[in-house]
Amino acid sequence: AQTVTQSQPEMSVQEAETVTLSCTYDTSENNYYLFWYKQPPSRQMILVIRQEAYKQQNATENRFSVNFQKAAKSFSLKISDSQLGDTAMYFCAFMKLLGGATNKLIFGTGTLLAVQP
Amino acid sequence: GAVVSQHPSWVICKSGTSVKIECRSLDFQATTMFWYRQFPKQSLMLMATSNEGSKATYEQGVEKDKFLINHASLTLSTLTVTSAHPEDSSFYICSARIRVGELFFGEGSRLTVL
Tell me: the pLDDT tens digits for B45-86? Predict the structure, then answer.
C-alpha cells in the first residue's frame, strides 16, 4: 500500500521569503503522479502543482516548484516570494498511474503554512 | 479549469434525519467521482469511489448503508447520510476525474448534526 508522509505539521515564513515543504512517500509502483494541493481557510482544494514520475524534470508553476527525487521517494515544494495569500494547509498526494479511472488520491497529513507580514 | 459544484455548502439537521449532498461536474462529464471526509485540522479521508451507472466502491471501515452514494449520470453524484448522528458531523468533499491524473474538487459541504 502507498503512504504519504508530511513531517512538518506547521511552518511559518516571512512575506517575500522562500519556504520549502517536505513530503516523502512509499510505493512499489514505478509510474505514478505526485501532487501538491493547497487548502485555504475557504477549504476549497486547489491544485498547486503536479509531477509525473516518469519525467525527470522538476515541475514548476510560477512561484511554486518541486524537488522530485524518485530514488529517495521525496517530493518537496518550494514557494518563492511568499505572499500572504499563500497562507493555507498544503497537502502532498500520490496517485498511481496504472489502474484506470478509479485510481484514487492518497493524501499526506498536511502542513499548515502561515505567511507573516 | 474545470468546475465541480457541491450543494449544499452548509447543512444543519436533526439527529435521525437523512441528508443528501450533491456533487456536479458543470462543464465536463465525469465517469468517476470520489467522496472524502475531513475532520478539523486533519487530512482528507477517502470514503468511496463513485462510478457512473454502477455501485460505489467503499473504503474499508466506511458503512455502505449509512453513506449511500448514487452516480446516476455523468455529471452528478450524490452522497446521502442516512439516520445522521452528531458523530457524522464533518466536512464532506467530492472530486471528479476529468482525465487520467487530473481531478477537480468541489467546494465542500459542512454537515452539522444536532
Answer: 999 999 888 889 999 999 999 999 999 899 999 999 999 999
Give phi and psi for A13, each to the nearest 5.
-145, 150
Checking if the pLDDT of A101 tops 60, the result is no
Cis amide leading into B8 (omega within 30): yes
Answer yes or no: are the C-beta atoms of A104 and B46 closer than 8 Å.
yes
Cβ distance A100 to A67 under 8 Å?
no
For the record, the C-alpha cell of B92 comes out as 464532506
Selected for mutation to probe chain B from A104, A107, A111, A112 (highest B CB count within 10 Å) is A104
Q: Does B28 touch chain A (CB under 8 A)?
A: no
DSSP for B65-104, written as a single string: TTEEEEEEETTEEEEEE-S--GGG-EEEEEEEEEETTEEE
